[in-house]
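In the laboratory, one determines a bound structure by crystallizing the protein with its ligand and collecting diffraction data. In a computational setting the workflow is compressed into a single prediction: the sequence and the ligand go in, and a structural description comes out. We illustrate the idea with nicotinamide-adenine-dinucleotide.
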Amino acid sequence: MKASEATNFYFQKAAKELRMQGQLERILMLPKREIKVEVVVELDNGEVSSFRGFRVQHDSSRGPMKGGLRYHPEVDYDEVCSLASLMTWKTAVVNIPYGGAKGGISCDAGKLSHQELQRITRAFVDQIHDLIGPQLDIPAPDMGTNGQTMAWIVDQYSKYHGWTPAVVTGKPLELGGSEGREAATGQGVFYAIEALMHDEQKNIADLTFAIQGFGNVGSFVARFIHDAGGKVVAVSDAGGAILNQMGIDIPALMAHYQSAGTVSGFTHAEPMQRDLLLTIDCDVLIPAALGGVLTAENCKDVKAQYIIEAANGPTTPEADEYFRSVGKILVPDIFANAGGVVVSYFEWVQNIQQFRWRLDRVNMELKATMLDAYREVRAIAKSSNCCLRTAAFQLAITRVASATALRGLETDSFCMIKT
Ligand code: NAD
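The predicted complex, in C-alpha cell form:
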C-alpha cells in the first residue's frame, strides 16, 4: 500500500465514524495546490543542470501551510502528498494555527557542493517566492536540508519581500531560530510517553524501551528516556542494532555515535540483527526511522505492549488493525511526533513578535501543548470507544472541517481555492 493510501485510509476511517458528508470528505482529502518547477543551475564544473522541485500545499483552512522541504534523489511524490496531508492533521491535533504542506527537490544533497546546494536553493526560491511566505506557506528542514538551507531561503526570499525570517522555521539561532528546536520532536515524543504512562499508571523508570533509528528524533528520545530512569535496551540505525537487557548507557552511546557515525560497534552492548529490534522483548517500541516498518508480516511478532510512532507512517493499516485487535496501545504519529512543528510554531511566533523566548519557556509551552492534545485525543478514544489514531484523526478532521465550513464552503472564493 502506498503512503498516501495509508494516510487516506486512516482519514476515511475517522471521517466515516464522524459521518462526514461525502463532498467535504473529498475536499479535505485532496491537496489545495501542487507546484512543480524546473530548477536550472550551473554546477561547479561549468555544466548546466536541471532539477525537479515541487511543493504540495494540502490545506490552509486553519492558517498558513506548514511542512518540511527535502532534498533527495528519489523524492517520492506520492509520499510527499501523504506527508503534506499528515501535516494538516498534525497541526490540527495539537491545535496550532497552521495547515499542512510538504516539498522537495529531486537532487542528491550528499553529492552536491555547498555552493551548488546554495545555487539550487536560491533558484528554487526564485521560482516559488510568491507561493510561500509567513502568512501563506512556511517550509522547514527535512531529509537532506538543514538550518543552512533555511538561512539561504530567508536571504533569497528577503531580496524580494524585505527582511522576513518567519518565511521558514528550523533556522540557525543567529537568524531567528528558536531555542529547543533541534530537540523538539524527541522532547515532544517523550512528553507523549509521559502522558500515556501517567494514564496507564506506569512509571517510566520501570519500563524497557527499544528504539529504531538514532538520528535527530531517536537519539533525543533515547536521551530523555535515559534521563528519566527508563531502560533503553535496544537501539538500531541504518548501520546495525545493539542490545543490552540491563539498559544501554545512552550518553556513552552518543559519544560512540559521534565518532563512529553508527550505533554499531558500541562495546557495552551485544550486536543484533538490525530488523529484529522491532520484535524484541520490551515494554515500549519506538519506531523513529522509516515509514512502513510495522507490517502484516511482522506485526504478530511485536512483543511491546506500547508502540509510540516517532517516525512518520511507520505502521501499515494491516498492522495497525492487528495491534488494535490484540489490545496493544499505539500512540499515532500525527500526535506523537508533533513536537517539532509545535516548536516551529513558537519560532514563527518569536519572529513575528521580534522577541526571543528562553529554553525553559519553549519546553514549558511544548509540554502544555502536547498534554492538552493528549487529553483531548484520549477523551475522544474513551467516549467513541476507538483507538488513539482514530481519535486523533477525528479531533483533527473536526477542527479542519469546521474551519473550512466557517470560512464558507459554498462561496466562490472557496471553490477558487480548491482548484
Ligand atoms: P534522521 O535522518 O536524523 O535519522 C534517521 C535514523 O534512522 C538514522 O539513525 C538512520 O541511520 C536510521 N535508519 C535508516 N534506515 C534504518 C533502518 N532500516 N533501520 C534502522 N534505522 C534506520 O531522521 P529524523 O529527523 O530523526 O527522522 C526520523 C523519523 O521521524 C522520520 O520518519 C521523520 O519523518 C520523522 N520526523 C522527524 C521530525 C524531525 O523534527 N526531525 C519531525 C517529525 C517526524
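The longest strand covers residues 48-59. Keep in mind that any predicted model is a hypothesis to be tested, not a measurement.
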